[in-house]
Amino acid sequence: MAEFVHTQLNDGIFIITLDRPKANALSLEMVKSLQGAFKEAAHERLARVVLVRGEGDSFSGGQDVFEILKAEGISYRKHMLETYNPLVIQIRQLDLPVLAEIRGTVAGAALGLALACDLRIASDDARFVVGFLGIGLAPDSAVSLFLPALIGLGRAAEAAFTNEPITAQQALSWGLVNRVVTAEMLQSSAYEMAKTLALGPVHVMGLAKRDFNKAIYPNLEQVLDYEAHIQEIARLGAEHQEGVHAFVEKRTPDWGKC
Fold first, then answer.
1. Other CB atoms within 10 A of residue 182 CB
2. Which residues lie closer than 8 Å to 4 by C-beta, 6 or more apart?
3. Are 92 and 60 in contact (CB under 8 A)?
4. Domain 5-184 is in which class?
5. pLDDT tens-digit profile of 60-73?
6. Hey, where are the domains in the chain?
7. Phi, psi (rounded to 5 degrees) for 154
8. Are 170 and 157 in contact (CB under 8 A)?
């Protein structure tokens, strides 16, 4: 596994850890490594549950914006079809329960990865940020599907349009996460939750997950494909250029000039 994604297996728990400086921002290399990690989990006969976590103070701040700047002229549609889209599908199609351990900030594409997981446990200081519109992009990584399915369209639209973070307590009351614990207790609580799952009938859990996919997310692949199409349109817009440069320059975007 690559330098910024680590895996280990304990007590039937296949642990995937994001570990990259600056809030575990997702690079192309990391996403490819995550694809490899979930493939490894699928083929590990001793794995009974997958636990996804971020090293340090944040789960992940989402796509590395500086990598976007360096890749001038890249097709966002092609990028999505090769990276986040297959990763989200991997998580949903994995016949094992997947638990996300979320502390600090989870934003953008990383929010999509967290929402693709079956269960989420968060620290009381966790913040859920849609993020995309802040850099002049539309939601991708199935956020446009998962978020309204979990908290309702009105709340999802407000979170997306305003870019205001959803607090841990809001996330709990709205059904975005299953549990909230103190930051000090998060790692041990997530492990115990995963351990409880690992002691259960995980093969039937996998079948139940297929049921949920069919009932709730039957059009997942079509949504991901459409998001990639929309993102390519957004990439060419003046608002994206303004949003990215404002992010890099650490200033408020001037949308009025776009």
1. 10
2. 18, 19, 20, 24, 27, 29, 30, 33
3. no
4. alpha beta
5. 999 998 887 777 77
6. 5-184
7. -60, -50
8. no
**208: nearest Cα among 97, 90, 68, 59:** 97
- Pairing type for strands 5-10 and 13-18 reads antiparallel
pLDDT digits (tens, 9 = 90+) for 98-148: 999 999 999 999 999 999 999 999 999 999 999 999 999 999 999 999 999
Count of residues in the chain: 258
Query: Measured between alpha carbons, how far is residue 235 from residues 23, 31, 84, 98, 230 in Å?
Result: 24, 20, 16, 32, 9
154's tokens = 């009105």
Q: Which residues pair with 120 in a beta bridge?
A: 100
What's the one-letter identity of residue 134? G
Indicate the range of 1-5, 65-69, 234-238 predicted with least confidence: 1-5
> For tokens 């979170």, what's the residue?
159
With CA atoms as reference, report the closest residue to 114 among 183, 166, 182, 173: 166
- Token pair, residue 45, equals 């006969």
Q: Give the mean model confidence (pLDDT) for residues 38-47.
A: 98
- Report the alpha-carbon distance of residue 258 to residue 256 in Å, rounded: 6
Residue whose tokens read 């006969």:
45
